[in-house]
What does this fold into?
Amino acid sequence: MSKEITADQTARYQQALAADPTAKVIERAVSHQGILATSADYASETDMTPVFSIDLDTGKVANQKQSGRCWMFAALNTMRHHLADLFNLSDFELSQNYTNFWDKFEKANYFYENVLATADQPTSSRKVAFLMATPQQDGGQWDMLCAIIEKYGIVPKSVMPETYNSSKSSELNSTLNLKLRKDAVTLRKLVADKVSADDIAAAKDKMLGEVYRLLSFSLGEPVSKFDFEYRDDDKNYHIDKGLTPKSFFDKYVNWDLSDYVSIINAPTDDKPYNHTYTVEMLGNVVNGRQVKHLNVTMKDFKALAIKQLQAGQSVWFGCDVGQSSERQKGIMDTKYYDKDALFNIDFSTTKAERLDYGESMMTHAMVLTGVDLVDGQPTKWKVENSWGEKVGTKGYFVMSDAWMDEYCYQVVVNKQFLPDNLKKIQETEEPTVLAPWDPMGALA
It folds into this structure.
């Protein structure tokens, strides 16, 4: 039987607070300054000085502005770092708008296919409700960008620059989701009415044509052929004519994307280490690259990231950026805020508990560009963000090693750095399929 709060309980709580001589001082501080400012421990800033034993020079940071494309910016940043080194091109960017266009177009088709696959279920079913909650959004994962690049290639930012709607995406997202939900009504009715497969395909084709028009008006139509004209850092002029997005990727990045694999740290009981996982209904390109995660211990997780940094290559990673993070100063440190001491409450939970109970999941993707090793052990990490140069140290953040332990969930590394046993598992094991709402399916 449920129990209400009694007057006696409330009186006891009030008496306990009145007996605390510090209560009014803390109340004044918190009520006027806020919880974060009052609980901040500025000693953390001394420990998080931006000096690293391994420090890759990756140039100016990019700015995703008012959009949720961090995963895309971070992935393209790892590629532009490589391109800049090869072709002497600092402060160069790849077009985030180009990949954004094709991602949204493919997500629309992926949504339609999932609507058709669940059309026999009631709208009250958890899977259908999950689909309709957010038909598409800006976020994504590494494997999803690889699927886009493998199908459509990439282009320089100069060829397809940002638009109002790519930099400030809320209007486009709400309009596109309005259309997708309307189309879901139509598709489910066609299935219920037992319309022929050909007629359903024709209806979906019309819907996709409308999505293409909506995206073209909002983001600009993607280029199919272009000239790449630039001056390198030595002021030498170059022009490369008649490129396609795929030939540009092959010539200027030339990565085998199948070499780059997702490594996660999810210490929950349902995901034993040294096994692979995928997530139902997570993706963008139908019949494209599957999202596949290899779950490892935090020790292995960090060792792989360090190996790639030591080889001179930056590392895409996903984390819960809002936890114990000071945005303006660019510090991510578990010691930065001490809410336990401020309120005399134990707020501690384990990483597994935070995942299981909805307290944390991957919310943001950035790039590791350095690490400070002391006696061979990491103490802090250099992070390239995509929030412009006005935060952190010209856009770069410092992350404590303890913060990585608690709030980092994913890194992408070249599988050449995997030990033989993990490499074999990643390449050969059929992944366990997780539920669509599993935290490892969160979109950064």
About this structure: The two ends are 41 Å apart (CA to CA). DSSP finds 17 helices and 14 strands in the chain.
